[in-house]
Amino acid sequence: MMATRAISAADDATGPRATGATVEPRVLDWIRDDFASRAADHDTDGSFPFENFAILHRHGLLSAALPADLGGGGADLARLAKIVRAVSYGDPSTGLVLVMQYLFTAQFARGRNWAPGLRERVLRSVIDDGALVNGLRVEPDLGTPGRGGVPATVVRRTATGWVLNGRKIYSTGAPGLKWMSVWAATDEDEPRIGGVLVDSATPGVRIEPTWNHLGMRATGSHDVVFEDVRIPDDQLSALVRLQDQHLLLDAEFQLRNALLISIVYDSVAHAARDWFVSWLQQRVPTALGAPLSTLPRFQELVGRIEALLYANRLLLERSIHMPDPAAAGTVKYIVTNNAVQAVQLAIDAIGNPALTRAHPLERHLRNVLCSRVHMPQDDIVLTGLGRAAFAATHG
Description:
This protein is α+β, with helices and mostly antiparallel strands. It has 3 domains: 9-130, Acyl-CoA dehydrogenase/oxidase, N-terminal domain (Butyryl-Coa Dehydrogenase, subunit A, domain 1), CATH 1.10.540; 135-243, Butyryl-CoA Dehydrogenase, subunit A, domain 2 (Beta Barrel), CATH 2.40.110.10; 251-388, Butyryl-CoA Dehydrogenase, subunit A, domain 3 (Up-down Bundle), CATH 1.20.140. It has helices at residues 9-14, 25-45, 50-58, 77-90, 92-110, 116-129, 251-282, 296-321, 328-350, 360-369, 378-392; strands spanning 132-136, 154-158, 161-171, 177-186, 192-199, 205-208, 222-231, 240-241. Helix 4 packs antiparallel against helix 5. The longest helix is centred in the C-terminal third of the chain and has 32 residues, at 251-282. Residues 1-11 have low confidence and may be disordered. Keywords: Flavoprotein, Oxidoreductase.
């Protein structure tokens, strides 16, 4: 178990502020334990953890991915990984929203496809106000754009400017978002596609509370509806023809997406492992007269879980310190499937107690299963690996 000295609420408010690059381990330990104390309630209610993001902002962690010369934390990938791990161990729903924050704020900082003045305005709101940012891409008919297709969300030019209409589903963090980068197409004969930045307070933006998922229930991934939303010219990214959409791909974004999402779910597996080990140490059946942890079969089973998580740690550490964008999807496939297997091993060993809502293992199982829905999804990764193998041995 990861026991640490408690930090009081006063310490949290007045103690040493983190900067993202220099956050103290004790601060991350406190955040982890504090978020964990509320995770079950947010899961039960499906409520969005606003207080968690207020804490992260107070410690400078919502802007950790931004360069220091822009006023951000200047955290490298290794530091971001530590923050995401601590947060996700406590509450993976918060961890997933934080990953999206890091991905999209860093993308804005790189200045790709966005007007400079808009870029500065967005980043300043993140640093000063703790604004949350995410990209909304998935639609009811389109599914995820990672599999191709033209979005049904449309931005059209009118006599008075651009107007946006459409619906996005699985909009992670929707209740807390200030900025939404909306994947949309123009209504031209030959549509152009790209991002449209929307301030959530703009008239015509509406959140429908549709998120009632198996796991990651506190992410607030509701539908967001756009009805005649007026968009300033500078809030359109560089729009491209459908056949040129590869020009919008950001290799750094995709690498960090795969690795940081993997860490979210690996952290769930670690939390499950810690609860399972503690339960085995405390469970003393009458017929045995000793803790279940003394039985070789449970020692072997915990050893299997440890081996899976050890493999994850080695793979993630290598990928963080020696990044390989071409292998990021494979890393995500291996790490998330190992995490699922680790939690399932604990579930299988305990039986009924593992599936009661009185214990967190049931929640960890529901959360870790959600790892499979994130891009790149398993079938895409495996198909790519298979094609590469055939190509390498052709002829």
